[in-house]
Amino acid sequence: MKNNDYLIHGTGLGLRREVIEEMKQITTDQVNFMEVAPENWIGVGGAYGKQFREFTEKFDFVVHGLSLSIGSPSPLDEELVKQTGKLMKDHGIKFYSEHLTYCSDDGHLYDLLPIPFTEEAVHYVAARIKRVQDILGQQIAMENASYYTPAPGKEMEEIDFLKAVLEEADCSLLLDINNIYVNSVNHQYDPVKFLKALPAERIAYAHIAGHYNEADDLIVDTHGSDVIETVWDLLDKAYEHFGVFPTLLERDFNIPPIPELLQEVDRITQYQNKWNEKGKLSVGS
User: Fold this and answer.
1) So what's the pLDDT on residue 108?
2) Cβ(79)–Cβ(51) under 8 Å?
3) Which of the ends of the chain has fewer CB neighbours closer than 10 A, N or C?
């Protein structure tokens, strides 16, 4: 995928309702696009609905779902997909992404759980992704997810499962840089090797975030702290390998003052400018 194929560009930031007033100070020079969970905004009217409209008229937006539960044994929630599609149409939202996980069976499980890395699961999940894309009339992106213990019945490695789903579903990838690092520690693999094995043409945009070190060999993906240097380095390597792609800073709680939060967004911009400039020099040399 070439840079001008991306539906969004530059740097992104998640819009958080608890600091929505403070986020009004953010300009499009600082942040190029924003992201919300559709479940938090479907059917919202009143003052919050008006504020949301102000943001969607100012910024490009993507939606990142929380509860589609693409790997669930329960029937696909097609009503949620349709409601998400309406939200996207009403606000001119560019893109929809979800987690390559499941979070429900007969009821909601309140966590994002790993799908078994099996051939059967590849076919099952890919068919459900295709159905979502048919309803929305556009390609969606699936995020490489963090997980803490593999699901039973493993037949293939995480990277092979992820690539097989993307290929069979013909969908895009939401590349979560922090999740690669988290999983590389929790499951003891080389994060750079994993990164470079991903299909460049599938990348739609990326996430970068902080995490919590529970133990030396256990990291929890929290989105509640600053991005660490090792994860920044992995983003740098990703730009070097794939070229620059749109990248969003995730911060879900422990949100610092907006000027402080924007320092991390600015750092994404610095890496993007670095590799954009190197690309120009390479082409012109």
Assistant:
1) 47
2) no
3) C
Q: What is the pTM of this model?
A: 0.92
Query: What is residue 97's three-state secondary structure?
Result: strand
Domain-wise residue ranges, the chain:
3-284
Per-residue pLDDT averaged across 103-122, rounded?
Answer: 71
User: Taking residues 15-34, what's their average pLDDT?
Assistant: 96
As a CATH number, domain 3-284 is 3.20.20.150
Give the contacts of 229 (CB within 8 A, at least 6 positions apart): none
**Distance separating alpha carbons of residues 266 and 29, to the nearest angstrom:** 10
Contact of 87 with 41, CB cutoff 8 Å = yes
As a whole number of angstroms, the distance between CA 249 and CA 262 comes to 9
What's the average model confidence in pLDDT over 58-86? 94
Angle at 157 between CA 220 and CA 230, to 5 degrees: 40
Q: Are 180 and 148 in contact (CB under 8 A)?
A: no
